[in-house]
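[scheduler] slot 2 assigned
[scheduler] job type: sequence-to-structure, two independent chains
[scheduler] chain ordering preserved from manifest
[runner] begin chain α
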Amino acid sequence: MTYLSDPGWLWLAKSAGAIAGSAISLAYILPQGRREAAVRFAVGVACGLVFGGTVGLKIAAELGIEELINVTEMTMMGAAAASLCAWWALGFVKRFFEGNRFGRWIDQRRKRSGAHDS
């Protein structure tokens, strides 16, 4: 059996968590086609790998369990959570910018602030 260093275990935990979170995300809200499924899976895995450690640390600190779990568990938990939430966050941003809603929101704010100035 080969020896795996501590960073190797962290990358393995991060990868496993990201893949699990992405798979759960696909199962929870079914994609419309294969292309959407592939994109959602890739986005989830990428976000889990990038933000897994930070999200795991934040979740553990908020729950008060950072002393009770080891770094590998914390990283896996964070990667799964980050990849699970990635597509929902991107969907929220997409809907916000879609249909020029953002532009209408800015115009409404300008009208309200202009009405108070006169």
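[runner] end chain α
[runner] begin chain β
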Amino acid sequence: MKPTYVFVQLKGPSGNHPGHIIDGHFIIEGDTVHLVDVNGEAEKDVDGTTYSRKLAANEHPKVIARRLVRSRYDARGNKSKSGFGRGPLDYPPITRV
């Protein structure tokens, strides 16, 4: 089965900033959506957890896949304000020797 591409917009474009998206791929096996890489291999977190969710009767697979992409992004520590475009950076205090 060929993986389907999906993306989530985190920040829209404005002024000179092009915006920010995160993306991923998914497949559907039976009634379950699985997040996979471009080759169809299951996406795994550092602890080996995969990203999958069973579809309810009225849910669209792309919507669920977008939620899984976002949860993968958040699980990798991106909820904090650190990183490009996510607010001010917190630096440790400067000590003089």
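[runner] end chain β
[qc] chain β: The CA atoms of residues 46 and 67 lie 19 Å apart.
[scheduler] slot 2 released
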